[in-house]
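thought: user wants a sequence for this fold. calling inverse folding tool.
action: design(structure=
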């Protein structure tokens, strides 16, 4: 995400504005005079800053009786908290009971008292010399003395967040909170140590002591400070105020965006930005450290970035912890607590006689660094699996190119790491084998309609048989994943599915008789629905107009779609399969389609468009290379990219190509894609590969860059009618500025605009092999890979 070049014009502009605001007469409406107080009640009054950007006061804690004494962004709907008073003794956020009072007493003492009048917190031991307090527009709350000197400021007592204008002098630390809405002390620290080193630490939770450093600036010296300057740059500087380490640079303007940097509850130090004045927007990630927290945290002792028996994946700046097949969360509301086995483990009394009752579920790229208890070299994969089967203590065998590791419970430091060219085999009890422990049974806790496929609990699952059938029959679009050399029977890893089966009546009721239509295509119609027991309640119900689909085929396809899990894919919640009624139930995306976002109303910001491009590319990369069975989307277009609350791009409609009976191996007249987005090979007698999606993505990328439709009859200038042609002409004549006319934000980022145009041009090459893979596209979009100049196009010898 690193931007390459500063924005010289913008910087001087914001400097001018800055100077202006310094000169301007300060308004006094943010002054809190002696003898003023606030009481802790829900939605009570607060002390705003002059601009109203920040406020100081009490905030009710979710699901708990009590209030935080806090500072928050007051013009943003979610009122993001940036500071809260902390109990010195435990380091936890202070929880003030209902009716507590924060007061600036007439003698200058600034304190928090409970309803009985007992002090529970104070800014400093004596209020000697305080003249007034003020909530500043920087987000800093200050106590000011008679000589206008700062006696106390919240900037000197940060909790987990720093803001532009804030400076921390060594030694100083930020402590993460426990979870998004739980402000108790969490498991991670950011420390500017007294040796000058800036270090991220895990703690030995629940104690406060530091455990393992997982990122460090590695620069030492006296008198260092961590600076978040008013332009939005974050760096470490020495006592001479020269920068010794850049943490986050070339951020968008602080005049246009709110900024905050936080040691997040997942351990990632993240620089977020939010477009000012846009209440429908959301915080987006500008920079995160470390780059991949799953790989960064390898603890001993400790369980790694996630809890025991789980594995970590990191995507789009967000960490997520998941359970392997056959395991489930100890506490679904607190996934960091790790996972437990859903089956009775192998007995050590009768290891040999039990080996045949166990089986493996395979996961690519998964391993458990610094956790194994046994290691072998120059062995085969089968040998590795067998040696684990024969060992009752072995829970997982990890194999890579002749190397074999044995892991036992609890599994630690688990992660998916695509640089690890190996796989993990999780030992699970075979379906139908007895000795299921009802206490551990997942099924018991769920309603009978809930189907869990892939857990070992379903004795006679029709689904499993179908899945086997699926794995062994040669499917047209689902090529077997990463290891075609293996027998598909042993290589198919068990699907992780948690889909609900709905009755048709339930869906009729939930959609109010299919009244509210969200969208309509030639082969399906989508309706909005409300289902009370789905998280968030809202769903999108897709009614398929299928011809001659057998139940088996339908369920097989549905289960394949259900196995996909990615931040940039719309999640399938369940399905209905009653005779002719074949419906899919998806999570509801509140912000609608990218098409309406991009081409209607006001134009989204350049930053948002860049994020959407990267998100969409990552979703496609997952479908092509990272999920169990490769999926070619075949219909990438802005109507099939949806946006959630925070404008995260999510691809929809994937996996439907097979359902809709489109044979992709040969030329067909029923082209699945949509005109304008389809690659040439659809029309020729050429095989359809994942490169068709790369082509469509290229077209989409141009639309994102220009906020224009790929084909627009209504433009006056006919050169601009076909966007990709026009964009190519602009590129050729070095007039990329024409593509982003009236788009100030993109204009100051022309370097990136140019890179993106070049990436787009590579994607729409006529020769599929000249197009990059989605993996390369993601790397180029994120700036981790150089984009070569597409010269002499469109010659097919010009390998990109
Ligand atoms: C406080 O405000 C929230 C959001 O506006 C509202 O849902 C809630 O009912 C209010 N509570 C009280 C006690 O007024
Ligand atoms: C807080 O106290 C007020 C007044 O005593 C009462 O009306 C209100 O219901 C209380 N709120 C909570 C959340 O307990
Ligand atoms: C308060 O300040 C005055 C003058 O600065 C000083 O003489 C006095 O000792 C201070 N009192 C306390 C309690 O600190
Ligand atoms: C926050 O998390 C801590 C640690 O797990 C727990 O003890 C506390 O009850 C949680 N608080 C809330 C409000 O859930
Ligand atoms: C913040 O730091 C950057 C990088 O050194 C610098 O270009 C910019 O002028 C600084 N801003 C302010 C307000 O000092
Ligand atoms: C700071 O500047 C002084 C004088 O320019 C120089 O002697 C000293 O070495 C510098 N210190 C650091 C830490 O760079
Ligand atoms: C064992 O695992 C393989 C591959 O995952 C699968 O094909 C086979 O059906 C499984 N056997 C049983 C009895 O679950
Ligand atoms: C449906 O299947 C029947 C029997 O296999 C076949 O005759 C018919 O042409 C099929 N209809 C379509 C629309 O594919």
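)
observation: tool returned 800 residues.
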């Amino acid at each position: 995400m690193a931007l390459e070049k500063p924005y010289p014009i913008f910087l001087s502009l914001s400097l001018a504005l800055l100077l202006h605001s310094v000169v301007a007469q300060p308004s006094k409406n943010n002054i809190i005079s002696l003898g003023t107080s606030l009481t802790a009640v829900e939605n009570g009054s607060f002390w705003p800053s002059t601009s109203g950007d920040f406020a100081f006061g009490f905030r009710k804690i979710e699901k708990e009786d009590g209030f935080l004494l806090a500072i928050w962004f007051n013009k943003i709907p979610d009122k993001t908290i940036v500071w809260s008073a902390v109990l010195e003794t435990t380091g936890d956020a202070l929880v003030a009971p209902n009716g507590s009072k924060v007061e600036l007493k007439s003698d200058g003492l600034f304190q928090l008292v409970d309803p009985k009048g007992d002090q529970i917190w104070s800014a400093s031991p004596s209020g000697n010399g305080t003249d007034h307090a003020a909530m500043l527009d920087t987000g800093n709350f200050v106590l000011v003395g008679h000589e206008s000197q700062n006696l106390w400021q919240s900037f000197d007592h940060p909790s987990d967040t720093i803001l532009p204008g804030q400076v921390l002098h060594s030694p100083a630390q930020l402590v993460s909170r426990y979870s998004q809405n739980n402000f108790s002390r969490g498991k991670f620290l950011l420390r500017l140590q007294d040796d000058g080193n800036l270090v991220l630490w895990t703690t030995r939770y629940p104690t406060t002591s530091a455990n393992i450093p997982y990122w460090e600036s590695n620069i030492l010296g006296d008198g260092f400070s961590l600076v978040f300057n008013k332009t939005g740059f974050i760096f470490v500087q020495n006592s001479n105020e020269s920068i010794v380490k850049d943490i986050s640079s070339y951020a968008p303007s602080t005049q246009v965006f709110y900024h905050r940097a936080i040691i997040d509850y997942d351990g990632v130090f993240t620089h977020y930005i939010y477009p000012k004045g846009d209440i429908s927007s959301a915080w987006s990630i500008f920079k995160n450290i470390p780059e991949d927290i799953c790989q960064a945290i390898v603890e001993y002792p400790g369980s790694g970035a996630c809890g025991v028996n789980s594995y970590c994946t990191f995507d789009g700046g967000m960490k997520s912890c998941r359970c392997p097949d056959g395991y489930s969360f100890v506490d679904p509301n607190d996934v960091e607590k790790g996972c437990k086995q859903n089956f009775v483990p192998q007995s050590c009394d009768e290891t040999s006689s039990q080996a045949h009752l166990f089986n493996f579920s395979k996961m690519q790229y998964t391993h458990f660094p610094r956790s194994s208890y046994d290691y072998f070299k120059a062995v085969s994969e089968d040998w590795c699996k067998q040696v684990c089967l024969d060992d009752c203590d072995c829970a997982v065998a990890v194999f890579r190119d002749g190397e074999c590791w044995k892991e036992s419970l609890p599994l630690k430091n688990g992660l998916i790491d695509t640089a690890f060219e190996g796989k993990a085999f999780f030992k699970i009890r075979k379906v139908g084998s007895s000795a299921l422990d009802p206490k551990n049974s997942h099924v018991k806790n769920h309603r009978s309609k809930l189907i869990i496929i892939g857990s070992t609990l379903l004795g006679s699952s029709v689904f499993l048989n179908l899945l086997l059938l699926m794995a062994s029959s040669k499917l047209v679009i689902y090529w077997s994943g990463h290891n075609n050399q293996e027998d598909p029977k042993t290589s198919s890893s068990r699907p992780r599915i948690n889909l609900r089966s709905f009755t048709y009546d339930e869906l009729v009721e939930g959609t109010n008789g299919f009244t509210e239509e969200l969208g309509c295509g030639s082969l399906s119609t989508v309706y909005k629905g409300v289902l009370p027991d789905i998280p968030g309640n809202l769903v999108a119900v897709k009614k398929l107009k299928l011809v001659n689909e057998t139940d088996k085929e339908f369920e097989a396809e549905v289960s394949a779609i259900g196995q996909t899990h990615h931040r940039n894919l719309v999640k399938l919640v369940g399905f209905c399969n009653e005779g002719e009624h074949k419906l899919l139930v998806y999570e509801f995306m509140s912000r609608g389609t990218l098409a309406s976002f991009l081409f209607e109303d006001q134009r989204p910001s350049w930053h948002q468009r860049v994020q959407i491009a990267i998100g969409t590319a990552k979703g496609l990369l997952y479908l092509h290379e990272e999920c169990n069975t490769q999926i070619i989307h075949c219909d990438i277009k802005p109507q099939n990219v949806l946006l959630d609350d925070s404008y995260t791009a999510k691809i929809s409609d994937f996996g439907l190509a097979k359902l809709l009976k489109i044979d992709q191996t040969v030329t067909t007249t029923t082209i699945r894609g949509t005109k304008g987005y389809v690659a040439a090979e659809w029309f020729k007698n050429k095989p359809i590969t994942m490169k068709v999606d790369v082509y469509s993505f290229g077209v989409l990328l141009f639309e994102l860059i220009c906020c224009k439709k790929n084909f627009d009859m209504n433009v006056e200038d006919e050169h601009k009618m076909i966007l990709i042609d026009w964009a190519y002409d602009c590129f050729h004549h070095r007039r990329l500025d024409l593509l982003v006319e009236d788009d100030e934000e993109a204009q100051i980022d022309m370097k990136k605009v140019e890179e993106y145009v070049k990436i787009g041009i590579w994607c729409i090459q006529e020769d599929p092999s000249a197009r990059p893979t989605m993996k390369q596209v993601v790397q180029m979009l994120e700036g981790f890979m150089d984009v070569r100049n597409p010269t002499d196009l469109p010659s097919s010898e010009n390998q990109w």
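thought: summarizing for user.
answer: Here is the designed sequence. The chain has five domains: 1-19+165-291, 21-157, 438-485, 494-587, 594-798.
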